[in-house]
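Hi L.,

You mentioned the student needs an example of a multi-chain input paired with its predicted structure. This one should do, with 637 residues in total across all chains.
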Amino acid sequence: MKKEVIFTLKSLYREDMNIYGYRFGKGNPSACIVGAIRGNEVQQLYICSQLIRELQILEQRGAISSNNEIMVVPTVNHFSMNIGKRFWCLDNTDVNRMFPGYSEGETTQRIAAGLFDKVHGYSYGIQFASFYIPGDFVPHVRMMETGYQNPSLANLFGLPYVVIRKPSPIDTTTLNYNWQVWGASAFSVYTNKTDEIDEESARQAVSSVLRFLTRMGIIRYNCHGGYIANVVREEELLNVKANVAGIYRRKKNPGEEVRHGDLLAEVIHPLEGDVISQILSPTDGIVFFAQRAPLVMENASICKIIRRLHG
Amino acid sequence: MIETVVSIGLPVDENMIIQKNRLQPDVVNGTEKRFLVITGTHGDELEGQYVCYELIRRINQNRERLRGIVDVYPDINPLGINSINRGVPMFDLDLNRIFPGNPEGHMAECAAHQLIQDMKGADGAVDIHASNIFLREIPQVRMSMETSERLLPLARKINVDYIWVHGAATVLQSTLAHTLNAMGVPTLVVEMGVGMRLTRQYCDQLIDGIFNLLIEMGIWEGESVNVKKPIISTDGQVRFVNANASGVFVPCIEHWRSIGKGEKLGEIVNPLTGEVCEELFSEVDGMVFTLREYPIVVEGSLIARILGGVSVDADGIMDHGSIAQR
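Structure written out for the whole complex:
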């Protein structure tokens, strides 16, 4: 394992922010894994730390195939993480909306450029990503539909679902999108947490990456075969919304099977405590995403369901 | 007439409401033109607040001169402005990156969709921005190259000093102005002043420009205003100056003034060591139309934008110099 500084940012009154890359193996740039780009992505940082630990052991055992190099970048924005902010600490811009970056530009453009300069050129790009609404997902691999996406490769992670997202204009400046445009097969891996650590799904994420690297011939690792993924298009997910605002009580968790009419959540009157709304499942299916925050706004999306296909 | 355009329930005994003030003649026949004045997209940009107040006040003072409809939306991000948040609180989202919205989406996307439904069909619009807390801007209109043919004639009438015709960026397709322009509502984006402050001189200048546009459109009866003749440039004439050190920026020039090639813009200093970390110089003869207002900088922070080939006198009157007029 070689630890190197791939980008440094100096700041007034704080120590330098160093972005580190951990390299394993030698030769062709095969796979690059990036963790926390946002300051609240603690789970993503943790997953990378565990992945680095596992890859170090595998490298010592000689289990990295010859002529393959893997790089892991566990964190990109710990200046914000250390002070409890999600976006860049000074101007609140999002590094993951700045790719491919610009080395002569603004601070977050420079961070993105510094990172992208080192992480492009790999055959496979894997990012541990997060969603902007607080909630829990079924672990899955997400790909942008850029015309270069390859869902059958995404299946090799062995996670239960692969989601294909049609990019909106704002997605064109993400790491995932730019990786693909620059010729890498890019995947975003979502686990069920962001700003807190879930050991079980972190283990699942680490295993999924090791499984993928094994199946691509980059490492030798004995692992459980995982799932045969269902490929779902994001627009096919059924969005369930709260019809009133109040205190939110979740009744179904991600991964749970639901039937039409099952109780998904309740909304409680915030002052008087009565149940003012029962949100029922409009379909048979699997809960793919569920809100976690204790308060809910009117019309807020509280749940996304994968409809069950009747054979 | 104050109307609620969007109302979405918040968790505890409150609705997020977006309101507009519709100003129209006492008798309408359905053929009147409609102009939109929109601001408050970013909760830290306040220059538009004074523009809305003063515009409504002047219209109400001479209501008999109103021949069409003026819809004033003083704050389309009310939670942001009330909490000094640039974005939409709770989502940490830039409202100006989610248009045209989505009726099935989350609160901010729903609000964006409902706003667009309310605005569509208008004959023109101005979307007033005030930079951010970091940078001060001279009164200017910004537009993409693709919309310039249609928008330049309007922009010339709105009494700004500068029109910046920039290249298209895919990410800007999610803005309010792009959405309205794509729907056939000619929409000018005005940038002026600085975040969290009011610059009354700029606001008054823009108000005169809006009245001029209303007169040209037949919405307001009055004599045309003698508006400024703006300098028009493309990206190629704009030089960016970014910090290459972190520290405190101390300018040694004023905003909106000429600068010579090689002239010093300012220094980045270190208050702990007493050292100058970087001296910043202009690479061109030109005019400083953007200047850093917030002193703390890190590597990459934007310090200034300079429009090459333009000079400006003590009254802010600009000489077009080598900039071609279109």
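You could point out the following to them. Chain A touches chain B through 41 residues (CB under 8 Å). The CA atoms of residues 257 and 286 of chain A lie 4 Å apart.

Best wishes,
N.
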